[in-house]
Write a structure and sequence with these properties.
The chain is an alpha+beta fold. It is built from eight helices and eleven strands. The chain starts with 16 loop residues before the first helix and ends with a helix.
Length: about 350
Amino acid sequence: MSFYGVDYYSVDELLTDEERLTRDTVRSFVDERVMPRIARHFRDGTFPAELVPEFGRLGLLGITIPGYGCAGMGAVHYGLACQELERGDSGVRSFCSVQGSLVMTPIYEFGSEEQKQRWLPGMARGEIIGCFGLTEPDFGSNPAGMLTTAKKHPGGGYLLNGTKRWITNGSVAAVALVWAKLDGVVRGFLVPKGAKGFAARDLHGKYSLRASVTSELFLEDCEVGEDAILPGVKGMRGPLSCLNHARYGISWGVIGAMMACYDEALSYAKSRVQFSRPIAGYQLVQAKLVEMLQEITKAQLLSLRLGRLKESDKVRPQQISLAKRNNVYWAREIARMG
């Protein structure tokens, strides 16, 4: 079934021609390349790795980063891309969000020029996959309590010790951005796959994000060089600023999930006949469809305004939290109603 989008308040008119082109390009890609295969991957609990080079060719990896082979687009472009990707599957959006917002963006903002040149072009093409090692078994929503540590190696470089859990892309990543406490201060370290003392193990049996790789990372006297540390940031500002980028994308992404649920429910209600007419003709069903449409429209306006604030460097973390809180809540409610 062809998807034309849900736009009850003509939000489309508030977008630039370039933003509409980004959305329509990703929308067509999702229809043609994601939708035909995602049910199988969701059922099997596997990630469609064959799509990663195509993400790179479309400029979806590190979309807001200027230079280094990245697209250098605005925040609304990124949001619209997340919306369309998550309309296909949350795991697909999550891959692009982790790669771009949680790994590439901190390398760009806090890394040395050597680190940027080493990692960003390959990541933009999808040839190098990254993961973000912040969450721990005992400290998820409270990252300041992390137990992972780093200390200077007597022979040079650093030794990392700790465990990270629920890490998207963990076992397939060529590099992990691991946050650890060095002399009590949180720092970011780029840990390449194959580093001595570093291992990743996948987590299976998930009920959500099934078409996504989720892993545990183990660091046991993991050895990294002097050039592994991100020089441009110290303290919790580093990981929290990354999370703000990602949470912004989620506020848009779940709109795509809402749209998909509404579109499917509306189509079914129009074709399902009970008592001699489609169930869409009954007020009980209409009330649910109207509530879905109402909340999709509010979420669209909320995220678009948030994107404009982000593009003008006026956005506050609390504003991102509000949009994510509202939109994720209603995405779940709409899925239930659908």
